[in-house]
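sorry for the late reply, my laptop died twice this morning and i had to redo everyting from scratch. anyway the thing you sent over, i finally got around to it. pasting the sequence first so we're on the same page, its 200 residues, then the predicted structure underneath. double check i copied it right bc i was rushing
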Amino acid sequence: MPDIFETIMHRCSIRRFEPKQIEETALQQILQAGLYAPCAGGRQGVIFAVCQDKEVNERLGKIKRANSNPRMATATSFVSRERPSIADDPKLTNAFYDAPTVITLFAPKNFLFSVDDCAVAAENMMLAADALGIGSCYIGQGWPAFADPYGQEILRQWNIPADHYAVMQLLLGYAKEGDKHPTPKPRKEGRVIRMGGAAK
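ok and here's the structure:
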């Protein structure tokens, strides 16, 4: 297992995946990392719905894509030139980028910290995935994937409580063979503000 700081600095979002499924042992470790993430009040309200059904993932990914604005990017405002997102490229029709494993994180609709709880759980899982040699990508605004009758039927099949909603999706899979791991960009200066206690 690599050093935690090495993992933090190495991890990046992967949007091009091999069709090969990740190993069950690795999946369980990644889920464990999510289950042990901080949560407001110790409530443990996040539900992790793991889907490895290619047909379901593709259909939900296309529903989500259809409910997204296909022209969000501009010449000066975009997510990534190296690894275009659906915000950048209207030709991308699957919001899940054909990832073999998609984990949707559901949380209570009327809880103040639902998004926060899901975000920290996702970060734990992304770091665990990177340490295990598995690529990941955080996909925000999870609910549009279920915004049609098919999506609603999937929610019923998964027994998602009516008082929960899809906050986000986490994509997992192996980076496409021969696809270069992105080099971390230099960190921008001036992002840390420090008051008192300066090192001597």
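Residues 4-173 form a domain with the NADH Oxidase fold (CATH 3.40.109.10).
thats about all i looked at so far, will dig more tmrw
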